[in-house]
Amino acid sequence: MGEWSKESIENVEEKLGVTPATGLSIAEASARLKKYGNNHLQAQKKINPFALFFSQFRDVLTIVLIISASVSLALSFIEDGGSIRESLLIFAIVIAIAIIGFFNEYRAEKTVQALGKLVGQNAEVRRGGQSMSVSADQLVPGDIVILSEGQKIPADLRLFKVRNLLVNEASLTGESLPVEKNTLTINNNAPLGDQKNMAFAGTFVSAGTAEGIVVETAQTTELGKIATLVNTIEVDETPMQRKLNDLGKKLGLFILLICAVVFVIVFFLVSEAVDRSLLQRLIFAFTAAVALAVAAIPEGLAFVVRISLALGARRMAGKHALVRRLSAVEALGSTDIICADKTGTLTRGEMTVREIYTTASHYDVSGSGYQLEGEVTGKTTTALELVLRIGVLCNSAHLHSGTVLGDGTEGALLVSAAKNKQAYETVRLAFPMVDEVPFTSERKLMTTVHNQGNGFFVAHKGAVELTLEICKSYVSANGQVKKMTEEMRAEITKLNSDLSKKAMRVLAFAYKQVGSKPKGDKDIESDLIYVGLQAMMDPPREEVIEVIHRVQAESGIRVIMITGDYIETAKAVAHEIGIMGDALTGAELDEMSQAEFEERVENISVYARVNPEHKIRIVQALKKHGHQVAMTGDGVNDAPAIKA
To answer: What is the full DSSP assignment across 495-529?
Structure first.
């Protein structure tokens, strides 16, 4: 894992035979396309209705029914007076079972295929020294791809030029915050979430621009490896399937034994007393044995089971849960452990400001996500209004119908301002921006300059420690501007530390008002006045805490949280929603043998910084202990574990 991230740009260029300034020639790109194939994942097999229908007859009990009905039907033609009605009734039951299962599963498979269709996209590449737009499925290893904000990354890229690049990798790694990217070579086997010099297929550019060399396409991308992993995982039978198959086998053997005994008794004892030929005696004894077999088989059992599962699937559909296999309804009822992905499942996957601090007050912010429902509790002060205004002005994101266009962290600042009746469009119109010192991953600061009547308003946000270094003053509890002291710096730094331990992401806000426009970055970011902090996180869904309590306390089902986020964040969210137990990282899991892990797995309830392969190990280790495990998640990184 991470072989390309450990290569220097020079080595990547040499291995792939490309110069970033010019890119591949059109002829070379065409030749590589023939060699490597198109850049798209192997399509799922189309649904074969006939195969899906005949797959309904695989149960042992159903097979026993078919055999007995066939023998009974054959005998009804051989012997006059044989009953054809009973054999036809069994066939009707078997076909009804198959039809019920077929229509439920065919409808679900068609829905899943419709959900799985991806919209085609184009990619901007450099070929022969010229920038051009090509279909993403035409990309080849060695292509130079140019990334911009809002773009879906079309292949695995080794980045060589980055400008303020933030990538949303939640669907691949489970990390809720966009990842700051750079071009530095990594010297160890880092998990996907820590490979900062790579951009992976299927993830999205939240902010910034970049250029990268295509190093993997199609099935060899990290996304493709997950797809391959899904296809290679075998699906286990559910407990009821195993029990019914076991019952069918035992019933079949028992019936064969009884039939043999009955056949012998009837042939040698009963039919001898009747004046019949040898053939007639054989047919009479065989008919009696088959009649007993048909009577002994519980024809209605399979039918009742399938009807019950179909009704369960229909009830779940009414609650917007799609069931692909009827057996999954029973498996869900047998579940005693649920492995839940954090980002987007237990949490919304949307950053939310939870607390605001000024030197005078502390404010709680209600609501979650990018919806505007909620409020800032407490008395509105000048300092609070300043903090919120700065968050709106020193910001390049936009809100649209509950979604954020741009960086999620900046979107959270717009929402917190709106909850205190500061509409960001109105504030920005009142303070038009005239200059900017942009955020970079190295600086971790952003400052903007705005027109304000006869002067200028400078708005600043950034990492707490770095912001305090450039603040000469602060807004005191009574609203006056006072000189920054070491005691005040220490107090703010401690508050930041306390909030960080609660898995909060903290930003500091500062400003200044000047008569003339500042000249140059250094002038803009000097003599600032500290105002306050905003602390945010990707919070648990509001309904999750109650659901977790009901599942664990009332249903006796244990919930395990799995995430690609850092372990401190994972533990804080787990504590808030009521998941208790030990925590383990993916790196620690890699150092354990499977036997060692299986010894500890019963005590671990939180897994952090994990990859898709880790999730499969977790599920398989729990199943080794006899647990019926369910997996929930909304990212492609969850797919292999869900199938397992």
So the answer is: HHHHHHHTT-EEEEEEEEEESS---SHHHHTSSEE
Return the structure tokens found at 203.
């993830």
Concatenated DSSP letters for 144-186?
A: EEEE-TTPBP-SEEEEEEEEEEEEE-HHHH--SSPEEP--PPP
**Active-site choice (59, 156, 341, 638):** 341
Pairing, β 528-537 against β 505-514? antiparallel
Closest by alpha carbon to 458, among 441, 446, 474? 446
Rounded to 10°, the helix 60-78/299-318 angle is 140
Q: Is there a catalytic annotation at residue 527? A: no
In the beta sheet, which residues pair with residue 198? 158
Between 139 and 288, the more confident residue is: 139
Task: Decide: 585 and 606 in contact? Cβ < 8 Å.
Answer: no
DSSP 8-state symbol, 21: T
Separation CA 29–CA 217 (nearest Å): 13
Give the span between the Cα atoms of 152 and 205, in whole angstroms.
6
What digits encode the pLDDT tens for the residues 441-460? Answer: 678 899 999 999 889 999 99
Q: What percent of the chain has pLDDT over 70?
A: 83
Q: Is 130 strand, coil or helix? A: strand
Query: Does the pLDDT of residue 115 top 50, yes or no?
Result: no
3-state secondary structure 179-237: EECCCCCCCCCCCHHHCCCEECCCCEEEEEEEEEEEEECHHHCHHHHHHHHHHHCCCCC
Contact 595, 642 (CB under 8 A): no
CB 52 within 8 A of CB 34: no
Task: Give which of 575, 579, 582 is closest to 599, Cα–Cα.
Answer: 582
SS3 label, residue 9: helix
Query: Which residues pair with residue 204 across a beta bridge?
Result: 152, 168
Contacts of 231 (CB under 8 A, 6+ apart): none
R_g (Cα) of the chain, nearest Å: 33
- CA-to-CA distance for 565 and 614, rounded, in angstroms? 14
